[in-house]
């Protein structure tokens, strides 16, 4: 069922979203700790991710 109140992104908005995701992936750094990996924003090291499963960043975008 299509929701009439929901509009799709324009091409420009879509391109900005892709560029933002690519920039976020490029800025992501990591290190191994206690048998797992810590992912964090290289520009803001306090912004980190904890996960119980592994997901490729390319697949998450």
TrEMBL record:
Cross-referenced Pfam families: DUF7331
Top-rank lineage group of the source organism: Archaea
Name of the molecule in the record: Uncharacterized protein
Lineage, top ranks: Archaea, Methanobacteriati, Methanobacteriota, Stenosarchaea group, Halobacteria
């Amino acid at each position: 069922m299509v929701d009439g109140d929901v509009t799709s992104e324009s091409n420009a908005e879509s391109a900005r979203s892709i560029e933002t995701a690519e920039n976020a992936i490029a800025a992501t750094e990591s290190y191994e700790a206690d048998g797992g990996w810590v992912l964090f924003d290289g520009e803001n090291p306090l912004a980190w991710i904890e996960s119980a499963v592994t997901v490729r960043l390319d697949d998450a975008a």
